[in-house]
Design brief:
Length: 511
């Protein structure tokens, strides 16, 4: 009994049979470059295979050559597809190698950048620590200097108020003395007029008057000697006071100039050293010692100035006391003369000699009045000189205050510059921290991308080689072609997306 004729095999069965034939036959016409070489079956051997499979069916024998030709075309198509797949694998491998090289270069760049960033961070930390300590010390020094200058200005203001008070008191005393001298001169003029009227009454007492006149002349000589001595003492005191005041003012002026120069040099050095390089501990100690020394010299100069001022005021007071004693002696002498004139008035004797003596007395009184006027003029001159000296002292005090204000402004500018440098350092530190964070992000992204690239490329290569070795030719050509193209294009797309992400991160970091 014959077996029934089998129906037409499906499209799935034909590739399976052809794949068996291809695996068994190995002819020299196959491609040597492909990993799975496919050999074309010769036409003269195909009837043997067909006879062995189905020797009874004549219709199948007629159709076998057409099927074999179709299989050969399919095999050739498969060989072309294998070449394409091989080319795609080579391009994928080269792209993977390039991606690995790019990832290694990115790693090296990130390592170098992180090392540089750590070094700059250490330098910035050191600079910020030194700048903070230096700024604190400079602020303390400037605050101490401001307090010292404030106390000095307050002391100078107090001294100025004291000097103005003493000057006002001296001017009041001079006005009183002037008024007293005017009253004395007026009384003397009135007494002279009364003496002229009463000359007729004094002629009887000529002899007695002569003796009294001699005594009065001796007393006047003594008074003149005392007046000359007082004038000499006043001149000596004025000269000594002028010399001392000039010397003290000159020395104070030189000392103040030297102090101002030293302060300006210190401020210049401080500003230059702040701009150029950080202070060392020796420089800071030297600056502190220099500031202490200058402060001690300034206090010593102020103490000397106060002592000299007190001494000059004491000398002026002693001069005023001498003038007061001279005034009292003059008033006492005038009282004695008035008593003598009253005695002459009481005598009532008139004589030409008495008139002559009285005229002499009048001339003597006039000379005394003139001497009083000269003394008043000298006192006025002394007063004017004293006011000029006080004005000069006030001008010097004002100039010193201006110089102190300028130096304080310079110190404030130095402090502001230090604050600005501190702000710039803080901004630089924030920028470096931001760069460090960005570099860490870049490094992590690059490492993740490199790891993903290496893992994906290795996995795809292994999977593709296994599938090419074990994949049967019996699948459909269309589905196999579509799968291969999708598998080849997917790692390229993924690599392109990863590289785009890395480029975006790098651009963000650069911004």
């Amino acid at each position: 009994m014959q077996t029934p004729i089998p129906t037409r095999p499906s499209s799935l069965e034909l590739p399976q049979k052809s794949s068996r034939v291809v695996r068994k036959l190995k002819t020299p016409g196959s491609d040597s470059d492909s990993p799975n070489p496919i050999i074309r079956m010769p036409k003269d051997k195909s009837p043997k295979v067909v006879d062995r499979k189905s020797p009874r069916n004549t219709t199948i024998e007629k159709k076998k050559p057409t099927k074999l030709s179709e299989l050969e075309t399919q095999v050739s198509n498969l060989q072309d597809e294998l070449k394409k797949v091989k080319d795609q694998l080579g391009s994928t491998e080269s792209s993977r190698r390039r991606a690995k090289l790019d990832a290694e270069e990115a790693k090296k760049h990130l390592v170098a950048t992180s090392a540089k960033l750590e070094q700059t961070q250490r330098q910035l930390d050191e600079l910020t620590e030194s700048d903070d300590s230096r700024v604190q010390e400079l602020r303390k020094i400037s605050q101490d200097r401001d307090r010292a200058w404030q106390s000095e200005l307050e002391a100078l203001q107090k001294q100025q108020s004291f000097e103005t008070a003493t000057l006002a008191s001296a001017m009041n005393e001079a006005q009183k003395f002037k008024a007293q001298l005017e009253r004395v001169s007026q009384s003397a003029r009135a007494e002279i007029q009364s003496l002229r009227d009463e000359l007729s009454e004094t002629l009887d007492l000529v002899e007695k008057l002569r003796e009294e006149v001699n005594e009065s002349q001796e007393n006047e000589a003594r008074a003149r000697e005392e007046v000359t001595r007082a004038e000499m003492e006043l001149e000596v005191l004025k000269s000594v006071k002028a010399v001392k005041s000039d010397d003290s003012l000159a020395s104070e002026l030189e000392e103040s100039k030297n102090r101002v120069r030293t302060l300006e040099e210190l401020v210049g050095k401080m500003s230059a050293e702040v701009k150029e390089a950080p202070f060392s501990e020796n420089d800071e100690s030297e600056l502190k010692n220099e500031v202490c020394r200058l402060r001690a010299e300034l206090e010593a100069a102020e103490k000397r100035y106060r002592d000299e001022y007190i001494q000059s005021t004491l000398e002026i007071r002693s001069a005023y006391e001498l003038v007061e004693t001279a005034k009292s002696e003059f008033s006492q002498r005038e009282a004695e003369l008035e008593a003598e004139l009253e005695e002459l008035r009481a005598s009532g004797k008139e004589n030409e000699l008495e008139r002559i003596e009285l005229k002499k007395l009048e001339t003597q009184l006039r000379s005394v009045i003139e001497e009083n006027e000269t003394l008043k003029s000298e006192i006025e001159k002394n007063k004017i000189e004293r006011s000029k000296e006080n004005d000069e002292v006030l001008m010097k005090i004002g100039s010193l205050a201006d110089e102190a204000a300028k130096s304080s402004k310079k110190a404030e500018r130095v402090a502001e510059e230090l604050d600005a440098t501190q702000v710039s350092n803080s901004e630089m530190e924030a920028e470096l921290r931001r760069l460090k964070v960005q570099s860490d992000q870049w490094r992590k992204a690059a490492e993740a991308a490199a790891a993903m690239l290496s893992s994906v490329n290795n996995g795809k290569y292994v999977e593709r080689s296994g599938s090419m070795e074990h994949h049967t030719i019996g699948r459909k050509l269309d589905s196999e072609h579509s799968d291969d193209t999708d598998d080849d294009e997917s790692p390229k797309k993924w690599n392109g997306n990863v590289l785009k992400k890395i480029g975006v991160l790098l651009k963000k970091g650069q911004k």
